[in-house]
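Q: Sequence in, structure out?
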Amino acid sequence: MSKAVYQLEPLTCPSCIKKIETTLNKTAGIESAKVMFNSSKVKTEFDETAIEASKIQETIQKLGYPVLSAKIS
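A: Exactly. Output:
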């Protein structure tokens, strides 16, 4: 299991959090996704054999939230 943290532009509403979390948590290969509203970070835990970190970033960006940086561990 791998972990990744994505830094987003500042989030402005609770519905943004729900939209990101719901989409990512329904995505195959992602074990968990949690949005930290105060820091505008998305913390994920995923199976690297099922999904690449870049695909997670792409998914977030397709929702309309630019990813400023990503840290994968």
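The chain has a mean pLDDT of 96.
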